[in-house]
Amino acid sequence: MAAWYRRDDKRGCVVLTLHIQPGARATQVAGTHAGALKIQVRAAPVEGAANTALAKFLAKAFQVPLMQVVLKQGAHSRHKIVEIHGSAIAPETLWMSE
Known about the structure:
The protein is 14% helix and 39% strand. The chain has a single domain, classed as YggU-like (Conserved Hypothetical Protein Mth637, Chain: A, 2-Layer Sandwich). It has one helix and six strands. By secondary structure, the chain is mostly beta strands.
């Protein structure tokens, strides 16, 4: 298991540790950074636009409704903790570590 996620079987979710780079050319996974999965987000960090874009990206990647993506920490930070509830998609599919 990679350092940037863990499974919480009691709550039925996957907890992701993310490093976000807003204002990128495209929204995509860009590797790892300091033990977190680095995700570049096209939206600017203005009025929550980057957080919304991140949530939509993760909902699509994990094939869950948007309401099942929960930002637990880091609403105003590049470092975020996000929970994904009820997904059958393995987190490893976002980024295969070496």
